[in-house]
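Deviations from the work plan: none for this task. Representative record:
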Amino acid sequence: MRVLVTGGVGFIGTNFVKYVMSNRPDWSVTVLDKLTYAGRQENLSEFENSDRYSFVKGDICDAAVVSRVMPGCDVVVNFAAETHVDRSIDDPASFVRTDVEGVRVLLEEFKKDNTRKVFLQISTDEVYGSVETGRSSESDALDPRSPYSASKAGGELLAMSYFTTFGVPVIITRASNNYGPFQYPEKLIPLFITNAFQGEKLPLYGDGGNMRDWMFVTDHCSALVAAIEKGRPGRIYNVGDGQEKTNKEVTFAILEATGSDSDLIRFVEDRLGHDRRYAVDVSRAASELDWKPEIDFETGLALTVNWYRANAQWWQSIKSGEFREYYKKMYSARLENSERNQ
Ligand SMILES: NC(=O)c1ccc[n+]([C@@H]2O[C@H](COP(=O)([O-])OP(=O)(O)OC[C@H]3O[C@@H](n4cnc5c(N)ncnc54)[C@H](O)[C@@H]3O)[C@@H](O)[C@H]2O)c1
């Protein structure tokens, strides 16, 4: 089986390709990635000499590139996206471009060959919007509330329309918050782990009570392989670990795991429109894909902290680049205000 993995050198893509290379020896992988600030080709350098792996630098919105790389692929797994909610508040246009238009370009190419097996669109539980109680199931109405989640919802609706209209074998997965190795340190867990290593403050949004259903990234990867092998075209599958934690609980767990002191915490002005809680019902994935998560939060966090400890060069080179400007813009004023109000 030949799999085209778009966004394959971002966080989840990298982990997915590693998972496939070790667990599916009869699959080969082509990665198509634009190498935005979030993508690092060297993440997969161990496979450079493998005849099962190839890398193409390119944009999923570029129909010429897509029509060059997709022929011969049986499966497309579309991870490529702009993914950071905070950045979507600042620059929605790049999100609509990649997360909606990019999906259309991929689907147009995919539908030219009706022998292809699966178009797997990687989506998010954020498309349900904030759920104060209970758990979202796949038939619930979508209520995306950030430019990020709205563009992800647009992308998956478009994908499903290609199933209905053209019979393209689209499968959609809606995953909860992932964490683990190779995550760009703008996201909560790697940001706080690396800040704690550096003795920097941990800027915690609002009252720290926002709740997420945290999933270790390899659990997501096993669900995606199960969706490709056992999923039904036209079907949507929630994927999550059911391990709900507030951001404050996550922060204290990181302090403990890194041996840091709670005086690093600073409560800062909240993200605009910050959804309070996401939680998904994963019974469909459990029964139809025969999938279950395996890594509990404590184990996953220890693995993650150890990885960032052992790979300081990876994140330090990121934090010394474009990231510095981003961090200043996001947090300087927030941290100053928080110090003033202490
Ligand atoms: N991280 C999470 O917790 C989470 C949860 C649910 C769903 N998802 C979804 O999973 C997917 C992967 O997320 P991630 O956290 O690995 O993201 P990421 O930001 O770490 O990586 C995104 C990758 O896509 C590439 N990319 C961006 N725009 C592109 C374009 N136009 N053409 C080609 N490549 C492009 C980037 O270079 C990068 O390698 C996304 O679709 C995201 O919406 C993520």
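The pocket of nicotinamide-adenine-dinucleotide is lined by residues 6-7, 9-13, 33-36, 38-39, 59-61, 79-83, 98, 102, 122, 124, 152, 175, 177-178, 184 (CB under 6 Å).
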